[in-house]
Amino acid sequence: MGCLLKGGGGLYPRLRIGAVLLAAGEGRRMGGVVKGLIRLQGVPLLRRQLIALSGAGVDEVVVVTGHAQAAVEKEVLGFSVTLAHNDAFAEGQDGSVRFGLAALNGPFDAIFVMPSDQPLVAADDLTELIGAFKKRPAGHVVVPVVNGQRGNPILLDDEARGRILDSATNLGCHHLLERYPELVHVHGTANTRFVTDLDTLDDIQALAQRTGWKLELPEALAVG
After folding, report:
1. For position 194, which CATH number holds?
2. Does the reported pTM lie above 0.85?
């Protein structure tokens, strides 16, 4: 039996997918906590993200380090990733996005730009975004939006990657929808995992209370 092609209403071809995992931040709103090292049920968020990316079939991952470089690099040992250190991490996330995109060995059909502070995003959620990317009618960036709230991660094509690297365009910014609507395909979804992140200590406490799961700070201060 022959394989059905997209034009016949059947299967979509497999995409070559890369990912930039952002782990360079200082965690200023959390008092200097390295958010990717927060442990959920004993597993650091960084490792959870890498497991999710692997489970979704991502071909290459760049982990961008900055603040607490040694601790972050130690946590990703054993994973097949490329490490890229951003010396200018204190200048903000935009530079880390560019740093990670430049370190990927392309070309790619799609690239995840993923923060390391999303505790609930798993392989199935990333697969949902890949499906939305394949089916999008137009646009270079897929952005999950839940009840009007922009979520993460985003998924962009190689053209968008080129625009970021060749110009001052910041396609990872929170104002992406307002500034560059012509580039964006909004993936409307009820999946609240895309909008669950940990910005403050209160966010950690709230998640622990809501789920009953144990969350621990890198310094082994337990929450929940």
Report:
1. 3.90.550.10
2. yes
